[in-house]
Amino acid sequence: MAAKWNMVVDIARCDNCRNCFLATKDEHIGNEFPGYSAPQPERGHSWVDIKRHERGTWPAVEAHFMPVMCNHCDDAPCMKAAKDGAITKRADGIVLIDPVKSKGQKEIVDACPYGAIYWNEEEQVPQSWFFDAHLLDGDWEKTRIEQACPTDTFRSLKVEDNAMQKIAEEEELEVLKPELGTKPRVYYKNMHLMTTCFVAGSVVEDVNGVEECAADVQVVLSKDGEELARAVTNTFGDFRFDRLEKGSGPHQLEFSSDSGAASAKFELGDDSLYLGAIALAA
After folding, report:
1. SS3 letters for 150-187?
2. pLDDT digit string (tens) for 89-113?
3. Distance CA 56, CA 198 (A)
């Protein structure tokens, strides 16, 4: 079985510096790579783009960033829409849009369910991020976006499919829109930061008439009478549960420590929640 290229993107490491976006622009604007791609236009194309997602409300607010690009799908819809061999799937897993054969085939752009293909009006060709195949074919070991990233968000891997599946399972990697069955080769780590919710809050207790942070309080999260997770408050009395399904409805929290106990209920909609201060009762 041949080794194939895959890209792992760690959402937790991306800080929106946009070096990947700029490196792709630097590599392709005004530069033609025969057999791989026509030059990228100066404006309008984001072969590597950054999606932003905010979770929570003050004072528990997060912003996360997810680089997106061509997924180099094994069952690529763009290939089905292409005519005359305009798109090929290489033995190493990379999907290439031929800059000559694809001329005039604007339908290729609409065929991508990820919006990762752009139309070059001047050249009259569809274009996308082609995994820097021109560099990898020149014995580069990393793509430009991986080299340009200061936070190690990207990790390109050339491995056999069974090895990649093992890595995906061990690292809990996910792909975009798995329900489409396109079999992407771009995998995401910490996808929950974009797709799920958290609930957070602070626990306080009365100490000689003064409200103090309650550390080491046991917190149990449950739903419909079934325990989902446990946590312990930190020095500041804070607790947090993550990876909760959006719109999952009513939940129950139980708090207990040597100095008291409390309970709280909340309804989880489409956004994360901060429950504020919860006071223990002796």
Report:
1. CCCCEEEEEECHHHHHHHHHHCCCECCCHHHCCCCCEE
2. 999 999 999 999 999 999 999 999 9
3. 8
Domain extents in the chain = 4-194, 197-279
HSE-CB at 224 with a 13 A cutoff on CA atoms is: 2
Q: How many other C-beta atoms lie within 10 A of the C-beta of residue 152?
A: 10
Place of tokens 């929950």: 192
Tokens, residue 152 = 């190690």
The answer to whether 57 and 116 have CB atoms below 8 angstroms apart is no
* Average confidence (pLDDT) over 116-140: 97
pTM over 0.85: yes
CA gap 136, 143 in Å, rounded: 7
Q: Which of 157, 159, 92, 96 is nearest to 128 (CA)?
A: 96
Q: Which fold has domain 197-279?
A: Immunoglobulin-like (2.60.40)
CA 159 to each of CA 19, 130, 172, 199, 248: distance values in angstroms, whole numbers, following the listed order: 26, 18, 17, 38, 38
Distances (CA, A) of 51 to 8, 48, 224: 16, 10, 34
Q: Which CATH architecture has domain 4-194?
A: 2-Layer Sandwich (3.30)
Q: Grade residue 259 by pLDDT with cuts at 50, 70 and 90.
A: confident
Q: Which tokens is 253 given?
A: 């929290």
pLDDT beyond 80 at 1: no
